Give the backbone structure.
Amino acid sequence: MYTVILGALLGLLIWEVSLVRACKKAERRVPVGEILYEGSWGLMIGVFVGFLLAYMVIPFLVPTHSEVRGPATLAAMRSSDGAGSAFVWARGDASLGETEYHFFVRNADGSFTPGHIAADSRVRIIEQKDLVNVGYWTSVVEVSDLHSPWANWSIGLSHVSSMVRQEFRVPVGTVVQNFSVK
């Protein structure tokens, strides 16, 4: 944000200095209306340049750090005969690259919330021997450091984040691969 303000002030200053120099060369007095008109152009150009810098250049200078979100508790889905259970299941067409992992997250009040994520190389499904009838979902996200000095000079950093990895930790034996040819 500071970049836009500084850009506006610099644009105004540069425009006014150039106007004063032009008037000195012409050896004439500058009317106030002309100063305000010409100064407004400098202000607008300065704001525009400052905005471009703050939105498109400076965010790349802000350092980032990894942030772990979760773990969220997964709910096991049992088959209609009660024989097996799954915490995460895939749905979609792998040949088209449209596969998603679906799951249910158990909330603190005992209710369930459905969720889904794209099935890509950032997803890890890990079977753990010490887990019984419970699973966990954790996300690792790369976020901008809002305490960096550069953060105050940029615009739109609070929402900038990128997914690094998503991990599903499930009990051993719950990852089953069934293939059906149609």
